[in-house]
Design a protein that fits this description.
The chain is α/β, with parallel strands linked by helices. It is 28% helix and 19% strand. The chain contains 8 helices and 11 strands.
């Protein structure tokens, strides 16, 4: 399909599956987009924004490409951030998952990315849909605690460890000291207005990567209390949400282990439902 209005403001590489763009607020991180080929610079149509947060493998472009057809069908732009490994030092794979680490606030970096996209394209408001699997699932549910007012819907895929909505425990196992750490209070009422989805493979039962031993940088009392497997831990997160009046759609995908690409069917169905509910 011919690109409309090419050359007025956007370049050839601002449509379709884009390159990775360095974030101008902090070029240490970057993002790529999928923009439907029929996007018109001078048009009136506005596009919903979908955020896809990579896991530890950093497969940002692959997730972006997997939602391209969905984006065309539903009038969306896809943004996939890239938080590189080793960002906070040699061997760093996990810093983004906890939202704040050293001088990084990964939630703020994502919001800066969204601001850059909003300055270039016509978005349908300042709220968006978000999905992340594994490490991305870590990020998504913690982002939800801090910025529910920015979310239309959030899909949380199989995080290895979870932060429960528990005001008797400190971060990261709970949220008691959320305001002290992040300068923002928990807003349960706003969280109740967001559509929430959780998804995990029915065979996602390996524990070698998610059991936290004493001495680990992740270790704190209660680190393994939410369950042994990713399934059990996600169910614990669901229970903590429901105890606070937050509804959850939960999908367990048959014959799937820890594979983010194989759970995207339920994610797309959830996003389609959430978008239809907005119209």
């Amino acid at each position: 399909m011919a690109r409309q209005g090419h050359g007025k403001k956007l370049t050839y590489y601002d449509w379709g599956a884009t390159p990775f763009f360095a974030l101008q607020a902090d070029p240490r991180v970057s993002y790529c987009l999928y923009v439907p080929e029929d996007y018109e610079e001078d048009g009136a149509r506005r596009y919903h924004l979908i955020i896809l947060v990579h896991g530890t493998e950093r497969g940002a472009a692959t997730y972006r490409d997997a939602l391209a057809e969905f984006a065309v069908r539903h009038g969306c732009i896809v943004l996939a951030p890239l938080f590189p490994a080793n960002l906070c030092g040699p061997g760093d794979l996990d810093s983004y998952k906890l939202i704040s680490y050293q001088d990084f606030r990964f939630d703020h970096l994502l919001l800066h990315m969204i601001d850059e996209v909003a300055a270039r394209y016509r978005l349908a408001g300042d709220r968006f849909l978000m999905h992340g699997f594994s490490g991305g699932g870590h990020f998504c549910h913690r982002f939800f605690y801090l910025h529910p007012e920015r979310l239309t819907a959030v899909s949380i895929g199989a995080p290895g460890v979870v932060t429960l909505l528990d005001e008797e425990r400190d971060w990261w196992t709970g949220v008691r000291n959320l305001q002290a750490l992040f300068g923002k209070a928990l807003d349960i009422e706003a969280m109740r207005k967001v559509r929430v989805h959780m998804v995990v493979g029915a065979q996602d039962t390996q524990t070698w990567e998610i059991t936290i031993p004493e001495g680990s940088p992740w270790w704190m009392p209660g680190a393994n209390d939410a369950g042994t497997t990713r399934i059990e831990r996600l169910r614990s997160l669901e229970k903590s949400f429901r105890q606070h009046g937050i509804d959850v759609a939960f999908d367990t995908v048959p014959r799937v282990a820890h594979d983010g690409w194989k759970v995207l069917g339920p994610v797309k169905a959830f996003f389609a439902y959430a978008l239809a509910s907005e119209t």
